[in-house]
Amino acid sequence: MTDRTILVGMTTQELEAFAEQLGEPKYRGRQLAMWIYRKGVITFDAMTDLPKAFRERLGEFAVINPLQVIDVKVASDGTTKYLSQLPDGETVEFVFIPHSDWDTICVSTQVGCPIGCKFCASGTSFSRNLTAGEIVGQVLIARHRENPNIVFMGMGEPLLNFDNLVKAIRLLNREVGIGARRMTVSTVGIVGGIRKLAQLGMQVNLAVSLHAPNDELRGKLIPAKLPPIAEVMKACWEYFQATKRRITFEYVLLKGVNDKVEHAVELARLLKGLPCHVNLIPYNPTVDEFERPSESAIERFRQILADKGIPVTVRHERGTEIQGACGQLRRQHLATLEVKT
Ligand code: SAH
User: Fold this and answer.
1) pLDDT tens for each residue of 86-135
2) Per the residue annotation, which of 93, 134, 175, 250 is the catalytic one?
3) What is the dihedral of CA 22, 25, 26, 28, to 10 degrees?
4) Residues 22 and 152 reside in one and the same domain
5) Separation of 323 CA from ligand 1 center, angstroms?
6) Is residue 36 located within the same domain as residue 165?
7) pTM of the predicted model, to two decimals?
């Protein structure tokens, strides 16, 4: 498969050039783009307005999606988690989350993650960046209907794979037809990346995984060397000024660690004035070191922020029964492989 050309990840222009390489007129490339990105077909045979001979040549020289689904888990609420294999044998996971009026697709940007947040299942290993085609390929597989929201909140740190991330956003926007405002890039706080993203002038949303209101506590939860919170806040202001998009702050609540009254008060002070929204995420157990706070502790934290005028919601859990948290399914898969070998 690897010596064949992978089509997902190419722009219409690139597909036009590819069609010409195979001796076809340029407009065949536009037809390919339409079938692959808009209609989401997964075989060349389904491309009924292409001549049969061309379809056969495509089958010989090209593959559509670089991802092959190897495991699918569906929860009772419809949340669906996919595990896919990449051309080099690595695996990646992504999640489809249905809502009544819209769907959300949570995609990965790296195989594993180099950041190593203490509470996260992805951070235990890092292999490589995903290509733009491997990012877009997840959306094409998980898309159930038009206009899903796309959140770059799966495995990996999107802003450490900046060029491929931006290429994927552009493909999703221009080729797949998903509005930039429906996409959210979630970052641990890579300041340089936030600034670069702001300068691109796209309307994508920014979510910052803060998890602590001060550098000392943040350093304990996120051991990677990161720019201090003050720098992150400055970059967030710039992001807001450039895009006029309200910033989301994600805060995983860990019992007895970052869920105290003093933390909520300090967080409210930190965010004061910035057009933002706080997403409290009760810890989804992955490692024994942490526990999820009680419902009353979660509510207390939420209320303090709300009383201080900070828009805040508690993220309702989806898909825990199918290992919905970041990196869990892949870890389980790798563990099974280890048992087998
Ligand atoms: N690296 C990016 C995006 C991937 S993580 C980032 O840090 O934002 C997506 C979100 O899931 C982050 O907010 C992360 O902290 C959170 N998360 C990871 N493991 C979790 C767990 N076990 N329970 C709850 N949230 C978790």
Assistant:
1) 999 999 999 999 998 999 999 999 999 999 999 998 766 899 999 999 99
2) 93
3) -80
4) no
5) 14
6) no
7) 0.94
